[in-house]
Amino acid sequence: HDSNDTTTIVGNLITTFINTREGEFFIGCGKGLMHYDYESDHFVNYRFPDGIMPRVNSIVESQSGTLFVSTAGHGVFSLDKQRREVRPRKEFEALTDNRYLSIRHVEPSGHLWILTSDNRLMRLRLDGDKPADVQRIAVGGQLVDIEGEPGGSVLIATKHEILRFDPRTGKMTSANYVLPNNLTLSSLFIDRGGNIDIGFISRSLYIIRSGERVAQEKQIYNRQFLLPHLTINSIMEDKDGNIWLTSPRHGLFLCSSK
Q: What's the Rg (C-alpha) of the chain?
């Protein structure tokens, strides 16, 4: 971050990011939303209504390409890429009384997974501009992350386990993955190869390779330097297959693995 350069990140608190199906890279921060322009190697800031610069908690993409941007205390917005603006989505305000909610995942069917500030998890669809078929999902623990599997099931990570939800049956079961003892999950991501990357508090990154069940520690390098044990709060794969990580007090890393 450089306060004198408007083409840099608006702050070092990186909260979330997404690589869209079109290969665009959007980053949520403690003070707003940015888009990374690969050609110019610059960051472009997006304007929120009324000049606010909210903390962005999550960014997800719908099947139609809409980006839902969830914020802390200001509700949910959707992104107008052409005008470089975000507009409020008032239809979500009835789901909580304080506008603290995050859309964490969108299924191929269009169902949205929403987490509230008091750890309530909901699954719903939009009927026009109104939430419909709202299901309240019971999760035995504090929710950390949600990721969709290639087969259509949904992985739900709590602080100490990974669960699997089957949309066809509506049932939640253990995913039966073997995780390291006495560690606390902080993030979850499924890459294009079907591998599951898992962040842990103060222990950086583990991986469950496609077809396997046991999590193994993964050494992560940033420009040839091995990263120390960090808390990883978000993981992403960009259009070129590079892995990006965010850490609460250390910012954004473009990494390679060895």
A: 18
Q: Which residues contact 152 (CB under 8 A, 6 or more apart)?
A: 107, 108, 167, 168
Separation between Cα atoms, residue 199 and residue 218, nearest integer Å: 10
Contact 203, 220 (CB under 8 A): no
CA distances from 200 to 20, 29, 96, 188 (A): 25, 21, 29, 9
Report phi then psi at 33, rounded to 5.
-130, 140
Examine the pLDDT at 172 and tell me if it is beyond 50.
yes
| Res 199 pLDDT > 60 | yes
Give the torsion through C-alpha atoms of 124, 141, 246, 72, to 10 deg: 50
Helix (H, G, I), strand (E, B) or coil at 123: strand
Coil vs helix vs strand at 92: helix
pLDDT of 176 over the 60 cut: yes
Instruction: Strand 42-45: give its sheet, edge to edge.
Output: 14-19, 25-29, 32-37, 42-45
CA distance 54 to 99: 12
Burial class for 29, CB neighbours closer than 10 Å (0-12, 13-18, 19+)? buried
Per the listing, tokens 């709590």 go with 158
| Distance (Å, whole) CA 9 – CA 3 | 9
Residue with tokens 């069940």: 213
Tell me what pLDDT residue 11 has: 63
Give the DSSP H/E element, type plus range, for residue 56: strand 56-61
d(CA 183, CA 205): 11
Token representation of residue 82: 């052409």
16 backbone φψ class: left, alpha, beta (φ>0; ψ -120 to 50): beta
2-23 residue pLDDT tens: 445 556 566 668 889 998 988 8
